[in-house]
Amino acid sequence: MGTLPDLGRWLIYTGLALAGLGVVFMLAGRLPWLGHLPGDIRVEGRGYSCVAPLATSLLLSIVLTVVLNVALRLLNR
Fold it and tell me: How many domains does the chain have?
């Protein structure tokens, strides 16, 4: 069981991570191509729409994998 300062440190890191994620979502909304790549499936009809951003998901997965691998390698030096 952790001590109270450990819990406080964990809460600060969690808060910073959530704030960073919020900034990423705010900036992602400004990218006009995000969600509109070739390979993203959009079906629109009368009164409904369905979006499956397959290519965008694949691209984001590759980018995040590379970024996290580089970050972890730099931290483990």
Answer: 2
